[in-house]
Amino acid sequence: MEDNRIIDMFFQRDQQALRETELKYGSYLQTIAYRVLGSREDAEECVNDALLSAWNAIPPQRPSVFRMFLAKLTRNHSLNRYKSERTAKRGGGEAALAIEELEECVAGSSDTEAGTMTEALQKGVNAFVRSLPEREGDIFLRRYFFLENVKDIAARYGISQDNASVILSRTRKKLREYLEKEQLL
Amino acid sequence: MKAEDLFDSIGRVDEDLLARSEQNLQAKAARRRTHIWRVAAIAAAVVLVAAGGIWMAKKGIFRKNTETPGNMTDRNTIAFEENTKKHMMQAVAYPDLPAQPSMTDYADYGESEDAFERYRQDYEKWNATVGKAAAELRSQLYQYGSRKAANAVAHFTEASMLQLLTNRGGENRTYSPVNIYLMLGMLAELTDGNTRDQILKAVESESIEDLRARSKAIWSGLYKNDDHGHCVLGSSVWLRDDTDVYNTNTLERLATEYYAASFRGKMGSDEYNKALQDWLNAMTGGLLKDSVKDVVLDEGTMLALATSLWFTGKWQDMFEPVGNDVFHGANGDTTANYMKDMKNGNYYCGEHFLATMKWFETESNAAMWFVLPDEGFTVDDLLDDPELAQLMEMNGNTAYSQSHEAQVTLKVPKFDVSSDSDLIKTLKAMGITDAFDANKSDFTPMAQGSGYYVSEALHSARVKIDEYGAEAAAYTISAMAGAYIATDKIEITLDRPFLFYIRSHDGIITFIGVVENPENAEEA
User: Fold this and answer.
1) Superfamily assignment of B41-98+137-310+419-464 in CATH?
2) Which chain B residues are within 8 Å of A137, Cβ to Cβ?
3) In chain B, how long is the greatest CA-to-CA distance?
């Protein structure tokens, strides 16, 4: 079903919207959640939570890119769960590795507002990704938004794993420089 | 700041950037799969003939439409021959809704930000005009109630398939429930009294007004006619040119509510028969030529209704060619040309069957479902299985309770099935009897006079699924789709007679059929 039609159903408060969303994007969203959490059971729950959030958000919101709207909701729910489960010392998928890789971008920064994400940082990261050459930006997002592993990324872009790793490493370095320049660290 | 904060922020980047990263992947895939098309070409038509009665005068009552027949829209690919246009009294204008911009049309898409920006702007322009109009058209179905309409068609399918899909004698069989359903809507408009009541009961409608609204809603919900594919329900009325007994109000209603074009000519003449055949061929993409060539109207015909459904769609994900293998057909083992698809998805487990579905590309708004009876059971065993009905209706949680997620490998033979059905027996078995009996029928809304009855009701349908193209590319795409690792794996191999149906996203069953023997498939 076309996204517009599914969104129309959300607006009409037709619960079939949720079923259609699940049919169309269920596997895709589970992929995202699974990569964060490494647990199929947890991933399913996060996708359900994300669908519920979509139900609550539409209306009034009318997502411009429905698939990505759902992807973001799922990633956020999964990340919240990841954080709570990490505290309980269980769970953890590709997210743990990705966060570890991002450490180098923030090493040595002040920790005054630990756990607080400012609006400035969000805007900064967005602007940074937008400033990258398209392929680098895409590869960065495949890794740190969608949490695809380097092997998958390499296969998708038809490059070697080493090449993919180098691109990611350079992009992280650029991100560090950008954050410093923008005084976001 | 912690790395986690940064990670959180990446989770909030703009959706267009995320979409770009996906679209670029798809664009890459699309470039790789140039020349690879998965086309399902499907068509059905019903010709229903009302005969008998008396006609009185010999002068024409219809004004020749000033609109050029056959040029319904710029976008419309349906074109009629001159002879057909000559007989056309009233053309119908179908909504002109060009397809949304496709990223693959932007040759350098993925390689420059300009291209992406052009694509984005064109898409937004399309969305603000055509997208909005398309949503308004579709909303007619929601305003009526998509579930109510879909269930009525599903119930009609369940009742009619017991008539039309059984006693196959080892032959393939297919028909279009929604096509026959809309034909009955038109027939109900032409009738009154008990004749009409019997039809309303068979289609589960409380009144002619309700059925009219439902028919229009179904038409609007299914309509598609652009570069991505077709789902066009055509209707037409064929009248005599030697009488003016017809009720113009009724005929105009058929035009406005059922998008029915009207024609006039000399019943029984070669010229008029050719016009009807041409209309049927044009409205079904020429897929039913073999059946259509035999459609002729007897000179005693008072009025004929013809409806059609032409559907084309590409698979959302490609099949991988497999090659020849054994099919345990109704008449013994044969060789079939198989194709395979592997994806993470759902399969449905009934007590006596396994089922799964394959999406047509998003724009087609439909999926084909494959239902394989368990070993020891036949397709006939399934036809009155309440679990199959639940699956077809996808109603509430029932179907979902049968659903399991797994890595599904679906192996399907290419097939090309067609069949012709005489609907009279079927419709009579469903309680529609008076319309076929000159002594009982009431065709008052159609025309002055009495003694009219339906003398013929013929239905033809053909469903063909194909795949062409490079194996490696297809395999790559399938592999890309399978990033999620499902723990369960299941292989569904359709190597014995099976049932299939096509269901729109709104739940309307457009085609259903049984493949007893896929031997008509092209050679590998």
Assistant:
1) Antithrombin, subunit I, domain 2 (3.30.497.10)
2) 17, 20-21
3) 92
Quote the domain boundaries for residue A80.
Answer: 3-87
Give this complex's ipTM: 0.82
Please report the pLDDT score of residue A109 as a whole number.
Answer: 67
Give me the half-sphere count of Cα atoms (radius 13 Å) on the Cβ side of residue A10.
Answer: 24
Chain B residues near residue A3 by CB distance under 8 angstroms: 362
Contact check, Cβ <8 Å, A134/B111: yes
Tally C-beta pairs within 8 A across A and B: 159
3-state secondary structure of B103: helix
| Radius of gyration, alpha carbons of chain B | 24
A152 vs B contacts (CB less than 8 Å): 483
Average pLDDT over residues B448-469: 78
pTM surpassing 0.80? no
Q: Determine the Cα–Cα distance for residues B298 and A157; give it in Å rounded to an integer.
A: 64
Mean pLDDT score across all residues of chain B: 78
Cβ atoms < 10 Å from Cβ of B114? 11
Cβ–Cβ gap A40/B363 under 8 Å? no
With CA atoms as reference, report the closest residue to B324 among B339, B313, B309: B339
In B284-432, which residue ranges form alpha helices assigned H by DSSP? 289-292, 379-383, 386-393, 398-401, 423-429
pLDDT in tens, B90-148: 888 888 888 777 665 665 544 555 666 676 678 778 877 887 788 788 888 888 888 89
